[in-house]
Amino acid sequence: MHEKVSTVLLTCGALLGGVLVSAPVANAMAPQGPSCVARHAARADDPGDNDPDSPTPSDQAVYDAESEAGLAAKGGHADLAAGSVNVPVYVHVVTDGAKGELTKQDVADSMDRLNKAYAGSQAGAATAFTFTLKGFGTIDDAALASITAPDGEQANAQQRPTMTALRAEDSDAATLNIYVVPNVLDEHGKSGNIAGYATLPQWYRTSDTNDGVVMQTDFMLSTPANTGTLPHQVGHWLGLYHTFQGGCDAPGDEVDDTPYQADPTSGKCPEGLDSCPAPGEDPIHNFMNDAASGCRDRFTPGQAQRAADQWVAFRQRPELDKGKTDLFVIGKSGEATAGKHLAYTFTVDNGSTATATATGTVLQAGMPAQLSGLTVSGATGCTINDAKIMCPLGDLPAGDSRKVTVTGKIAARATGGIQASVAVADTSGNATGTRIVNIVTASTDLRATVTSTAPVRRKRVTYTATVTNTGPSDATGVVLTLTLPVQTTGTSRVAGCLVRGAQVRCNWPALAAGAHRKVTGTATVKPATKAKTAITVRATATSTTADPNLRNNTANNTSKVK
């Protein structure tokens, strides 16, 4: 029988924001320490800092494009009545001797808890989902008693012996396999930190044998202090993110009626928390938060709708199975230069392994916000809504491909990386996507001009040089060099510039687009200079910012000595 622990286990969110982390606490009312919250600091697009249930912003953008394409291929947002979708469930319990045992009643209680959560019991919204236990088995095998939580989609595609050995043979994307093991290991191979994890629905196409929910044995039990872990993980399996996904930044968890939340909730049920400037207190009672398990008891209507949408886009069984499609999309682009046009070419292919026509194919692209004036070629009937493009491509026979080109102008002052996310889907539920990341090269056009007063022997002549940045980008590391005629001497000092003989060199850290700098200096025409001698002063402007037009970077002024 399962041995009860003497301390109450509170869940302290994901180790890195996604997989649930367990933390033994002597007093369930005591708040958890700062080390727990620190694990959930805002995460950048670092593949090594990824986890299954809290994708990086880049991955999230691709998943969103896949979801939108999948829904568009099937006619738009899901319209599923409460309780209308029954999910078959197989529970696989692995023990290591006496460690990890669960009874059939334990599993039945867990299923009851799961159904109540998704039926909208207590204060929560009703969802479309019910769950029926189709199979339950226990195997005593030390070699299968540990599962390592992946740190992202690619890692999840690696072989996991427990899942490969136990997965129900008739499983498909709409079948929930739950693996209950004594040890859920973190990336360092240690157990005791992670209560469970789930795979996102988008991952099924790359690793169907690893699809499902993994639970550490203690957290599968139905106890008053542990009512939220299983509904939480199944929520991820249905496509729900944490309520603190992305912190206070859009798009958050993609659900309108869950307030933004900076970090997972620490402590048991700390009412009144408000960690973001956007309206609404932190949803501490939401199943997709990481508050103490007994504190979580509800989903919102928006989460119910998102779960239904994700189901239709990725997990719903097709009505007819007349073959297999093999959709994929390849994206390419040219060099990204600020202020210039950039063209993306998306090639949609129903690949060589396809045995069926991809019907109702849809391409969905999320273009960088730094692009304007978007146009589409290669497809008809496309819609452009802000930075999102949807193109119906119709039927795509096996082995065929289509190309769609999207062009836009990069903002003049765009800098750093920009990302386009593109996905393609058909009515069979096949959806796949990718992203294209460009580093924007700043582009400027410096123009130099120079004038002088009439040169007279033994007299001072005044030179004025100007550098103008005609844009589109700001220029950095700007240098204006003024080279005076050899027929002059006694070059005057110029404030902020270095004077060496007949050369004046001026430096500025930056010159904004549309701005200019002017330099004025004097020199004496040498007495030996003959009248009517042509003398020339030259001004040259350079910068560390790319300047594709160098023809106007140098200016000369020639005049005859009187």
TrEMBL record:
One of the protein's GO biological processes: proteolysis
Domain (Peptidase M43 pregnancy-associated plasma-A) ranges: 176-307
Transmembrane feature ranges: none
Record domain DUF11: where: 335-426, 447-558
GO molecular function, one term: metallopeptidase activity
InterPro entries (UniProt xref): DUF11_rpt, Ig-like_fold, MetalloPept_cat_dom_sf, OmcB-like_DUF11, Peptidase_M43
Keyword terms, alphabetized: Disulfide bond, Hydrolase, Metal-binding, Metalloprotease, Protease, Signal, Zinc
NCBIfam families: B_ant_repeat
Family: Belongs to the peptidase M43B family.
Name of the protein in its database record: DUF11 domain-containing protein
Record organism: Actinomadura barringtoniae
